[in-house]
């Protein structure tokens, strides 16, 4: 049975994003000259946006898209990244991992014996595609999964550094491939953003949470956008969902699922309680974390200097903030150097933690 014939009680919605879609289209329609970094908080819809962007474009243009989600398929492969990327047929096919590059048996043997340079193998295919009039597009989601990986034969050489050098050669120098990197890890992107060499070869674009008017349009038209017919929401109920999770695409989707079987007041109460519990568990007995989050009782966003009056040593502060970003408690926007909680729900969790409500 094809996917088109399957029936579900709820479908993935896609709301507006025309500005973002046009920005991506503009990037693809220009000669490659930079790595395109898409950043934004968790559940802001970055991956969904990329898939929706590619659907019509692949029908309009001759593209060869290689889409790699490192968190989903290759997070634990280490230096076997090349094996996964170039020889996907060797992986567990239950994951339905696509074959990214076409290589013959001889090249495959050389790669396994490490007698061939995998970067050259990839570049050769990109060159062949362009000779055939096909645009190569390489998309890597959550690239930070490779951040701490070193080459097996050189523990002083970070794998991701070599990868970025390769990306710069493909874009800035050879104008050969459109490369899009998506990540919700602001600390990882901050390293990239402040690298003087990479900064000149990269473009950064933020995909933020949905605006209120888009959320309300979605929630008041559930049958149109999510194919939900089992219930409808009033304007007041839609407003309560906005007040709880804001424009967080993933969280709205989760709440809509809960509403099939539970009343809205109970769903939202339990959701706030869950986020409060996550905050409480994360803080544990570390009062330094508590002092950092206390700042957001009065501020929407904060720069690192805003945490200094809390009496935390600067060296400890940087590490704690990075840990909060990596654990999706806070989001860090590298282009503005600001921190803020991961959406409205986390603001609720922080407030309730300090109020000890619910």
Structure, described:
With 358 residues, the protein is an alpha/beta fold. It has two domains: 17-206, P-loop containing nucleotide triphosphate hydrolases (Rossmann fold); 262-355, Orthogonal Bundle (Arc Repressor Mutant, subunit A). 48% of the residues lie in helices and 13% in strands. It is built from 17 helices and nine strands. It has helices at 18-28, 46-60, 70-74, 81-86, 105-112, 118-131, 159-173, 186-193, 196-199, 212-219, 222-226, 235-245, 249-258, 264-283, 287-294, 314-326, 344-355, and strands spanning 35-39, 63-69, 135-141, 150-151, 154-158, 178-183, 202-206, 330-333, 338-341. A five-stranded parallel β-sheet has the order 2-3-6-1-7, with helices on both faces. A two-stranded antiparallel sheet has the order 4-5. It has a two-stranded antiparallel ribbon with strand order 8-9. α1 packs across α2 and α12 runs parallel beside α14 (264-283). The chain is globular, with a radius of gyration of 22 Å. 31% of the residues are buried. Residues 75-79 and 89-99 have low confidence and may be disordered.
Short descriptors:
358 residues, alpha/beta, Rossmann fold, Arc Repressor Mutant, subunit A, 2 domains, five-stranded parallel sheet, globular
Please specify the SSE layout and strand pairing.
Elements: H1 18-28, E1 35-39, H2 46-60, E2 63-69, H3 70-74, H4 81-86, H5 105-112, H6 118-131, E3 135-141, E4 150-151, E5 154-158, H7 159-173, E6 178-183, H8 186-193, H9 196-199, E7 202-206, H10 212-219, H11 222-226, H12 235-245, H13 249-258, H14 264-283, H15 287-294, H16 314-326, E8 330-333, E9 338-341, H17 344-355
Parallel strand pairs: 1-6, 1-7, 2-3, 3-6
Antiparallel strand pairs: 4-5, 8-9
């Amino acid at each position: 049975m094809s996917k088109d014939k399957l029936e579900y009680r709820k479908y993935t919605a896609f709301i507006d994003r025309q500005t973002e879609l046009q920005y991506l289209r503009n990037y693809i329609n220009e000669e490659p000259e930079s790595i395109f970094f898409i950043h934004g908080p968790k559940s802001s819809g970055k991956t969904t946006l990329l898939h929706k962007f590619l659907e019509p474009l692949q029908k309009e243009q001759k593209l060869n898209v290689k889409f790699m989600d490192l968190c989903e398929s290759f997070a634990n492969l280490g230096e076997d990244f090349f094996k996964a990327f170039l020889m996907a047929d060797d992986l567990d096919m239950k994951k339905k991992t696509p074959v990214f590059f076409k290589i013959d048996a001889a090249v495959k043997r050389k790669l396994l014996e490490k007698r061939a340079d995998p970067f050259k193998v990839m570049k050769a295919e990109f060159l062949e595609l362009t000779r055939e009039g096909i645009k190569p597009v390489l998309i890597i989601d959550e690239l930070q999964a490779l951040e701490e990986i070193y080459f097996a034969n050189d523990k002083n050489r970070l794998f991701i550094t070599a990868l970025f050098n390769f990306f710069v050669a493909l874009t800035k120098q050879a104008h050969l491939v459109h490369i899009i990197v998506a990540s919700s890890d602001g600390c990882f992107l901050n390293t990239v953003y402040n690298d003087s060499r990479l900064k000149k070869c990269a473009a950064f674009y933020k995909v933020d949470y949905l605006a209120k008017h888009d959320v309300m349009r979605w929630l008041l038209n559930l049958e149109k956008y999510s194919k939900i017919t089992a219930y409808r929401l009033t304007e007041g109920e839609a407003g309560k969902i906005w007040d709880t999770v804001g424009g967080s695409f993933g969280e709205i989707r989760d709440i809509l699922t809960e509403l099939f079987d539970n009343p809205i007041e109970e769903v939202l109460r339990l959701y706030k309680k869950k986020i409060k519990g996550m905050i409480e568990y994360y803080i544990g007995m570390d009062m330094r974390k508590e002092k950092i989050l206390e700042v957001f009782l009065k501020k929407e966003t904060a720069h690192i200097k805003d945490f200094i009056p809390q009496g935390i040593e600067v060296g400890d502060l940087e590490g704690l903030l990075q840990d909060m970003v990596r654990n999706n408690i806070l989001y860090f926007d590298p282009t503005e150097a600001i921190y803020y909680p991961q959406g409205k729900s986390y603001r609720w969790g922080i407030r309730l933690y300090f109020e000890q409500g619910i």
